[in-house]
Amino acid sequence: MGSNMTLGKRITIGFSILVFITVVLGIIGVVNMRNAASGAEKLSNVYVPGVDVASNIFKTANEIRYDMRAFVLNDDETVLANVKKNFAELKKYLSQAEELGKKNNLKELLQEEKAASKSLDEYQTWTEQSEKTLAKKKILDLAMVDNAAIFIKNTMSYVDSQQEQLKQDLEDKADKTKLWDRYEKIASINNVISIATEARIAGQRAQVKHDVSLLETAVGKFESIYKNIAQIRATTVRPVNLEQLKNIEASAKAYESALKGFISTMQESSNQGKNLVRISIDVLNSAEAVQDLGLKNVKDISNESNSSLSVASWIMIVGLIVALIISAIVAFLIIRSIVKVVTDAVKSLSEGTTQVVSASEQISSASVSLAEGASSQASSVEEVSATIEEATASNNQNADNSREANILAQHSNDAAKVGNHRVIELMSAMEQITASSQKIAKIIKTIDEIAFQTNLLALNAAVEAARAGEHGLGFAVVAEEVKNLAERSAGAAKEITGIIEASIDQVKAGTEVANKTKESFEDILNGIKKTSDLIGEIAISAKEQAEGMNQIATAMGSVDQITQQNASASEETAAAAEELNAQALSMLDNVSELALLAGFDMGKENRASSNIKRISTPSITPKRLSMSTTSKKPISKPSSTTSRRTNEDVFPLEESDLKEF
């Protein structure tokens, strides 16, 4: 630190460094805490709600997936209500995600939400198509059931007819060929029934297993049915039986057509199921992506906050260590510089105080010697002063007489000057009266002009009132009054103007008389001045002689005064030396205490100061001069001031002298 720095500046710099380090650490801590708080706020207000929404999206999408699987596998219409409800919930959650993304500028969330919304729209479209396909499937299933029942009814009617005919043939004891033919027809129709039953069972199994190949196998069996019907028709001759066979064939074809339609519907449903599975996976993946994104954001912001707090902790720890080190260094430097300065100051004060004590002893001795010499000199000066006083008295008397004559002449001259000055003042006052009268005349003239203008305005107002007719009667009366007042004002102004002009003429006459009086006073003044000058020259000569003698007397009085002052000053110097000695010893004690505070050994200085004795000043009373009072101008005697002096009088110190401490 600079040697010119004061103690206050050094301490201020030290504390300023500590405060600066503390403020820097505080700012770093506050910034990191604010970052952590911002991350926590963002986590609470953005990412946690995002994870919540993503979790709801994933949960709802999963429920839709399970419901759609039940719908696709079991054609269960009851789950469609839950699916539609979950669709609405999923749209609501996606809207919340979109709103959250737009509000907080989460681009990735908006992208995932857009992809999920697109997949959801496609999911809903396929769901609606599947619902329509299910309705169509139910219609076709009902058609299959109805056509199968019709087909069975027709075949059973044909069987019943053939059995009745067989019974009749047996009763009629028909030949074996006819009976065999009847038997083959019954066997063929039973075969048709068996094939149709297999097809019906295959259709039911196909619906249960969702296996279209079983239905296709069932449809392939209808060729055998048609062949058997054709064989039966070839041996049938009765119209009733032919009609029955025709109905059987028609119902078989209707049943086959229903099966084929059901096959097409199942294929369409299977395709839709595959798309639904695919779309459900897409929706679920999008929902999972949204959820993963939210969890990732939460994890990232948590890691960021953790890292920020960790960095802040390390910065605070390192900062505190650095602050402690710097504080120790600064404290060491400040203490060392302060102790060094104080120690040097204590040494200087100690040496100076010792020298002051010694000097006070020398001053006291010199003051005593000076006082004795001044007392002896005062006796000699008293004798010379008495002789000079007598010579001065006569010269002063002559000078006084001349001075009185000169004073009388001066009084006469002054009286003449005063009279002349009064005449001049009278003339000046009369000139001012003349000027004021002229100004008043101008003002009266202005008033006259204003009255004239007012009269004109009143005339104009009367004319306007006359034009106004009855409405202007009141205004005409007022205008007439104003006109009268204007005429009266004009008359008064003219009278005042005449009076003022007469006054101006009288003042001019008085001014001429005053000028003549002034000339007379000037003549008297010149005569008095010449007389005064002659008396003044006589008075000056007498005064110069008196002043010469007075100067000699004054010189001797000054010598006497200086002699007495020297004696008094010597006495005061001795007293001051005693006080200085006491102050020096007191200061030496204070310096010792300061040295102990600074850790400086004052043993030697204290031992030296212990040998210094307090000095005492002998009472010296110089002989005072007894001067005669016959002189007009007595010599003043010095006043002896022996009051006790303060510390500042004895040992004055300015604030700048102690600035270093």
TrEMBL record:
Residues 609-661 are annotated as: Disordered. Residues 352-581 form the Methyl-accepting transducer domain. It comes from the Bacteria. Residues 628-644 have a biased composition (Low complexity). Keywords: Chemotaxis, Membrane, Transducer, Transmembrane, Transmembrane helix. Pfam families: 4HB_MCP_1, MCPsignal. One of its GO terms (biological process) is chemotaxis. One of its GO terms (molecular function) is transmembrane signaling receptor activity. One of its GO terms (cellular component) is plasma membrane. The chain crosses the membrane at residues 12-31, 311-335. Signal peptide: none annotated. Residues 609-620 have a biased composition (Polar residues). Belongs to the methyl-accepting chemotaxis (MCP) protein family. This is Methyl-accepting chemotaxis protein II. It comes from Sulfurospirillum diekertiae.
